Amino acid sequence: MPAAGDVLKRVVLGRALRSDRQAEQELPKRLALPVYASDPLSSVAYATQEMVVVLTLGGLAYLYLTPWLAAGVVVLLTAVVLSYRQLVHAYPTGGGDYEVATKNLGRRPGMVVASALLVDYVLTVAVSVSAGVDNIVSAFTDLADVRIPLALGFVAFLTAMNLRGVRESGRVFAVPTYGFLLAIGTMVLLGLYRAATGDPPRAESAGYQLDAETSGLVGLALVFFVLRAFAAGCTALTGVEAIANGVPAFRRPKSRNAATTLALMGLAALSMFSGITALALITDVRYVEDPVQQIVGFGEDDVQRSVIAQIAASVFGGGSVGFYLVLAMTAAILILAANTAFNGFPQLGSILAQDRLLPRQLHTRGDRLVFSNGILLLAGFAGLLIAVFDANVTNLIQLYLVGVFTSFTFGQAGMVRHWNRVLRSGGLTAARRRSVHKSRAINA
Predict the structure, then answer these.
(1) 3-state DSSP call for residue 295?
(2) Structure confidence at residue 11 (pLDDT)
(3) DSSP readout, 238-279?
(4) Of 26, 259, 268, 331, whose CA is between 20 and 30 Å from 392?
(5) Cα 236 from chain centroid?
(6) Cα distance between residue 420 and residue 42, in whole Å
C-alpha cells in the first residue's frame, strides 16, 4: 500500500515520467506563447499607466508627451525583439543573455547578467502576483485583509502546476492568455471605431483637475523628467528575454519555433500597447500616484480605478459584461505572468549549475522531467518577498526594473561584439551556416 506522502505527491504532481518521454513535454508554438510570453503581454496592462503617472507629476500640460514617449517604447521594443530573434538562432542552448555575455564579454559580465536575471525572475513572480491580487482586491474590497495569504496561495498554485510539467502548465495558462488578447483587442478595436465614427469614449477621470507637484521644468530637469517617464513606459519590455532562455523547451525545430513565438509576442505586445495608449489619449484618462493629494476634490474614501478599468468602462460601459471580462482577464494574465519566471528561472539555474556557478542539484530533473529544485527555490524567494513587502507592488517595482535593464544592456552589448567578430572573421554568410549547423545539432 503506498504511503500517504506518495499519494499526495501523485495527486499534486501526477505520475512520474520516464526520461525518454522528454520530447513529449516539448512545447508547440500555441502553448509556448502563453508559457513564455505572458509576462511581456501582461505588462501592457500597466505600461501606459506608469508613464501617465510620471507625466502627471508635472501637471496636465505634460501629457502631450505621451504619444512621443509611447513611440519611443515601440521602437525600442521592436529592436529588442528583433535582436532576440537573432540571439535564439546564434545561441540556441537556452542561456539567453547569460550565454551571450559570457562568451562575448567574459565570465564576470556573464555572472552579472545571470545574477540580474535570477533576481528579475524572483521579482517577476512577486510583482506580477501582487499586481494581480491588487486587481482582485479592488473588485472585492473585503479581501484586503487577506492580501498576503491570497498572493502566497497563487504562488503555491503556480508552483504546483509547473511541477507537473511545462506542457500541462501551458494548457492551463493558454485560456487566460488568449482570453486577455481577445478582450484587449476587442476593447481597442471598438474604442477606435467609436472615435472614428464621431462618438469617442470618455473616461470617468477626464474632468479631473490636478495639483501639479512639479511645474515649469526646463533644461536638464525636463530631460530627466522625460527620461523617467520613458523608463516607466519601458515596463512593456519586461519578460521579453524569457523565450531566449527557454529555447530547449520548444518543439523541434527549436530555434525557428522560438523565433516565431518571439515575433508573435512582439506583434501582440506592440499592438496592445499602442492601442491602449491611443485610447488613453482619446478618453482623456487621468491617473496619478497619490489621488488625494494630486486630484482637486478627491476624497479619502474615493477609489481611483486603473487606466485599463477606466478605458473599459468608457468603451463598454461601467458594469457591463465587457467591462468585467476585461478586468477578469487582466487580473488573470497578471497573476499568470509569473509563469514566465517559473519556466525561465529553473532553465537558467540548470545552465549555471552545469557551469558550476550554482549547486548541481539545480541541474537535476524531477519525476515530471522539470527542474523541480529550481521551481521550489524560486517559489520560496518570491513568497519571502511577498511576505516582507506586504504584497505591495510600489515597494517591489523599482528593484524589478534594475534587473531587467541590466540583462538587456549586457546581452545587447554581447550581440554587438558577436556580430563584429563574425564580420571580421569571414563574413555573415559563413556565420549563419555555422549557426544553422549548431541549431540542427541541438534540435536533433
Answers:
(1) strand
(2) 41
(3) TTTTHHHHTGGGBPSSHHHHHHHHHHHHHHHHHHHHHHHHHH
(4) 268
(5) 7
(6) 35
**3-state SS, residue 128:** helix
Amino acid at 391: A
Residues pairing with 210 in the sheet: 295
pTM of the full structure: 0.80
Structure confidence at residue 361 (pLDDT): 65
Amino acid present at 270? L
Q: Dihedral through CA 216, CA 228, CA 270, CA 239, nearest 10?
A: -170
Task: Give tens-digit pLDDT for 57-106.
Answer: 777 778 889 999 999 999 999 998 998 888 888 888 766 787 888 889 99
Inter-residue contact 287 to 50 (CB < 8 Å): no
State whether residue 288 is helix, strand or coil.
coil
CB 290 within 8 A of CB 204: no
Q: What percent of the chain has pLDDT over 90?
A: 21
What the block records as the C-alpha cell of 410 is: 549586457
Instruction: Quote the DSSP letter at residue 358.
Output: S
Residue position matching grid coordinates 537556452: 94
**DSSP letter, residue 362:** G
- Provide Rg for the chain, Cα atoms: 22
Identify which of 288, 265, 222 has the alpha carbon closest to the alpha carbon of residue 51.
288
Please answer whether residues 337 and 129 qualify as being in contact, where contact means their C-beta atoms are separated by less than 8 angstroms. Answer: no
Spatial CA neighbour of 38 closest among 393, 378, 397, 334: 334
Q: CA dihedral defined by 246, 248, 253, 257, rounded to 10 degrees?
A: -10
Asked which of 120-124, 370-374, 425-429 is least confident by mean pLDDT, the reply is: 425-429
DSSP3 helix / strand / coil % (the chain, rounded to 5)? 80, 0, 20
Whether residue 258 contacts residue 94, with contact meaning beta carbons closer than 8 Å, is answered with no
Neighbours of 53 (CB within 10 A): 18
Give the pLDDT score at 302. 72
Beta bridge partner(s), residue 16: none
Distance CA 289, CA 159 (A): 32
